[in-house]
Design goal:
heterodimer, A: 427 residues, mainly beta, Porin, 16-stranded antiparallel β-barrel, two-stranded parallel ribbon, 3 helices, 22 strands, 5% helix, 53% strand, B: 480 residues, two-stranded parallel sheet, globular
């Protein structure tokens, strides 16, 4: 977007005897100033908990940087939406028309874990796959980005926060979230096999099966791989304009053991599923994208997020999530201006409505704006703003004698603002 | 990754001819020299693979009923996550009947690997090579999507090789167990999975744990002589290991935490060509490591008034772990045969000197283990058809027959079959089957004493627990 095609392409390191080693990657750091409210507290005299208080990433943002008024003001040096990455690929022609490629990407961090320099800065191998690409389509095997949630993530990446930071999504360690968690559903990385058809009149089908994920603490059995799919229509409009539409789906059976009243062991089954859609359009200097998702047990940030917001900790029922996201950008020479908004909502279960011990997450809302300046093909300066708002339902008030719900505590709200400025070198 | 390459050098760069040799030294199997500049050579090797792995059978067994008072423990039931131990315990995937049926997408016996080498000629006959390999897996640890896949630097060494032999310094593959591992890599599971080491995380084990003793990686120094008519001696000294309390929470008092000296390991190999394409390789291996601890012993001494005074005296104790192993592999026409065996105290069942719950008894005694493994393969064009079988077993200690609270592991048995198809010299499709059978001795029978505590009954054992699991794995490997 801000850099030429040549700069964005793989950088060939060496080529010999039919083998080609290439690299791609980036290094970035941002000064990230946050101010606003720290995690809310229940009103004096009440004894309920607020979801997310003890589970980072579940809802809102809980730090240890709050002052006596429970206000948050802190600056960190952080990675951006994408962290420090070293990607290495080895390509070879399998046949005159089919290439095979092995690719491994190592993701690192700029910031120390939880502001402590005593932790080692560990790498995360987010990608490690083999890809076969030919006129018959493409087949991938290995660790790669999932299919469900790609279009919203792609919009955020392309128009929103590729060279920015957005919501840090926690105070501990990045990479950060951009609009993920506020309307963008991140697919996450998983081992799997996927196949993509050739594009037929702009239409492409991608299907895959991925390593199953457990919903820890509730649905610990996940015996079968998870199918995910995406149907895409992509069309160039003139020389530089583009339209892309995408539908996505995901389904995973889960199970857990129970013991009935007679003491007999049994198995209960359920499923996590999701559906998503989105589109993006590029006309002249204008870019616009919008996406939505819904599904059961998904989580707020990434599909199959292990978090107590995904299920009721007592009944183990999976909660239902909905997300909506829109992002616009204007590219003027080396300058890109961007603005976005999104929200993820968590439906309340019947069991939640009578549980006086908990205030459940209701929604997370993000508003963002950014300006990026491409100093060169490979070096981008970024300044972005993100407003992160979390709303809770407020805990039901339950009469301790009759156990009847007599009302509801005032819903909690947290608003944190971030201003992030930094530079990204990418190749 | 170097363990997989066609290294026929005279030096300590393992003297092995793993997958590369199996593919008849095709160039793709060796490291790729990508840059030659100013006398420096940059090499790059690696692989990426993924397998659909379906497992079906028994999850970790429950104790055989019959212990007095409360159930005994089955050895291996308590273990650190993501660490192989005895038996095969899934990550909470058992159904209400204790059965396991689950599919994952896993890395194979060799994970995803990036290997970087820098080579330079020191003299016209001597070269130096620095090499670092980074291993990772495709699967997320413990089926948790957001848990980071943290890479491991399994190798990081330099070697100097000349007509006088080869010296290697750094983190390398050990010598003890190489022969059995080499057979498994070459003929069995170099492009397969075999037994997933754990349900949580790979890379997988192939026949390791069922007859193959995996040397593992350690810091060390080693030297290999030149080949004298095919005969070569390899010796090394490696960073010592300790045997701390295992497993967690069982109240073991058997820790051996002092390991002051390096561990010598060695191997004597004989390798000769048979005709144009045939090969015979024999190898014997050994290792030894002293261990020590300071125990607080209570000593009674006369108090001068006709009684005794009991004091606690720090008392040094020492023992050792040791192992001997041998094996051979033969290549005649399309046929590949390999067999290996090991025996040793503290060797363990999976990788050598692994501190599993079977290694040290509660009494502090170190168990002795035995393994035997056979593997065959037939190369038919681009196909490789393989079958193998192996057993690893733990000796029963005298104290095991007195401890009514524990059923000790007896044997882990593996039977495997595989078909590999070499699509090209760098892409291999694999389909393999592995049957894993674990057998426990059974806990000594117990009765309740007058205080309601379980005590040894007649010295006989309850029926031993058993576990039978089957895995079918299918996937693809790209290597360079």
């Amino acid at each position: 977007m801000l850099w030429s095609a040549a700069a964005r392409a793989e950088l060939t390191v060496a080529e010999k005897n039919g083998w080609r080693l290439y690299t791609e990657g980036r290094i970035n750091t941002f000064a990230s100033l946050g101010f606003g409210e720290d995690f809310p507290t229940p009103p004096p005299g009440s004894s309920y908990s607020i979801v997310g208080e003890g589970a980072p990433g579940a809802a809102g943002q809980n730090t240890e940087q709050d002052d006596v008024d429970n206000e948050y003001f802190a600056v960190r040096g952080r990675n951006g939406f994408m962290s420090t990455i070293l990607g290495l690929g080895m390509v070879r022609d399998l046949t005159p028309t089919t290439k095979v490629r092995g690719y491994i990407a190592l993701w690192g961090h700029a910031e120390s874990y939880d502001r402590s320099r005593s932790y080692t800065s560990e790498l995360d191998v987010r990608e490690g796959y083999v890809n076969f690409d030919g006129p018959w389509g493409a087949f991938n095997a290995g660790r790669m980005l999932g299919l469900f949630g790609r279009i919203s993530t792609e919009i955020d990446f392309n128009y929103g926060h590729n060279f920015g930071l957005g919501n840090p999504c926690g105070d501990i360690q990045g990479p950060t979230c951009g609009h993920i968690g506020t309307g963008v559903m991140f697919p996450g990385f998983a081992s799997g096999f996927s196949y993509a058809t050739p594009k037929l009149a702009g239409v492409q089908l991608q299907v895959g099966i991925f390593d199953p994920v457990r919903v820890l603490g509730a649905w610990n059995r996940a015996p079968m791989p998870r199918p995910e799919g995406a149907l895409t229509f992509e069309q160039k409009l003139g020389a530089t304009n583009l339209l892309k539409l995408q539908l996505e789906g995901m389904w995973q059976p889960v199970a857990r053991g129970t013991v009935d009243e007679a003491g007999v062991a049994d198995t209960v089954t359920s499923k996590v599923w999701g559906a998503a859609a989105g589109g993006r359009v590029e006309v002249g200097p204008v870019r616009f994208g919008a996406a939505a998702f819904m599904g059961q047990g998904l989580g707020q940030y990434y599909a199959l997020q292990n978090s107590p917001v995904a299920f009721n900790t007592s009944t183990k029922e999976l909660r239902f999530f909905k997300g909506l996201y829109a992002q616009a950008a204007l590219v003027l020479g080396r300058v890109q201006l961007a603005a976005g908004a999104g929200q993820v909502r968590v439906d309340e279960l019947d069991a939640d409505k009578t549980n006086g011990s908990l205030s459940n997450a209701k929604s997370q809302t993000g508003l963002s704006a950014a300006v990026y300046y491409g100093l060169s093909d490979n070096l981008v300066l970024g300044l972005d703003y993100f407003r992160f708002q979390t709303d809770w339902y407020g805990a039901p008030i339950v009469d301790p004698t009759t156990m009847a719900v007599t009302g509801r505590h005032a819903p909690e709200r947290q608003v944190v603002n971030y201003i992030n400025a930094g530079a990204t070198y990418h190749w | 990754m170097n363990i997989l390459k066609n290294l026929r050098c005279s030096g300590a760069c393992f003297g092995l001819s793993f997958v590369g040799a199996m593919l008849c030294s095709q160039p793709a199997a060796a490291e790729v020299t990508l840059l030659d500049q100013g006398g420096w050579h940059f090499t790059f090797d690696g692989r990426v693979n993924a397998f659909l792995s379906v497992g079906q059978g028994d999850d970790f067994p429950s104790p055989t009923p019959g212990s007095a008072g409360k159930d005994h423990d089955v050895m291996g039931t308590i273990r650190p996550s993501r660490t192989p131990d005895v038996g095969w315990k899934s990550s909470e995937q058992a159904d209400e009947n204790g059965k396991y049926f689950a599919a994952r997408i896993r890395s194979g016996l060799v994970g995803n690997v990036l290997g970087f080498g820098i080579v330079r000629e020191l003299t016209p006959t001597t070269r130096i090579k620095g090499y670092i390999s980074i291993w990772s897996t495709v699967e997320s640890p413990g089926r948790d999507k957001w848990t980071a896949v943290i890479p491991v630097t399994r190798e990081g060494y330099f070697s100097v090789t000349g007509p006088w032999g080869s010296a290697t310094v750094g983190r390398t593959f050990g010598w003890f167990g190489r022969m059995s591992t080499e057979i498994d890599h070459l003929y069995g599971h170099g492009y397969g999975v075999g037994l997933p080491c754990t349900d949580e995380l790979g890379p997988a084990c192939g026949h390791i744990g069922t007859g193959v003793a995996y040397p593992g990686y350690s810091a060390g120094f080693s030297y290999s002589t030149p080949s004298f008519g095919g005969l070569q001696l390899h010796v090394g000294a490696y960073d010592p290991i300790v045997l701390p309390d295992m497993p967690l929470g069982t109240g073991s008092t058997g820790a051996w935490k002092r390991a002051p000296l390096l561990r010598p390991e060695g191997s004597l190999t004989f390798e000769t060509k048979l005709g144009g394409t045939g090969l015979l390789k024999l190898g014997v291996e050994g290792m030894y490591q002293p261990l020590a601890r300071v125990e607080q012993r209570q000593v009674s001494t006369p108090d001068g008034m006709g009684g005794t005074t009991t004091t606690t005296v720090p008392t040094p104790e020492s023992t050792s772990v040791w192992g001997v192993a041998g094996g051979a592999r033969l290549e005649v026409g399309p046929v590949r045969l390999g067999a290996a065996a090991f025996r040793g105290r503290g060797v363990g069942m999976t990788y050598v000197l692994q501190n599993t719950s079977a290694t040290v008894a509660k009494t502090g005694e170190i168990r002795t283990f035995t393994g035997i493994y056979g593997q065959g393969a037939v190369m038919v064009g681009q196909f490789q058809i393989a079958a193998g079988g192996g057993v690893a077993s733990a000796d029963q200690l005298r104290s095991d027959r007195l401890d009514t609270s524990m059923s000790v592991i007896h044997q882990q048995i593996g039977i495997s079959g595989a078909v590999y198809y070499h699509l090209t010299d760098s892409v291999v499709l694999g389909l393999d089957y592995f049957r894993f059978m674990a057998r426990w001795y059974g806990a000594p029978k117990s009765v309740l004493d007058g205080n309601g505590n379980p005590v040894l009954a007649d010295g006989s054992l309850l029926p031993g627990e058993k576990q039978d699991l089957n895995f079918i794995n299918a996937g693809v490997t790209y290597h360079w």
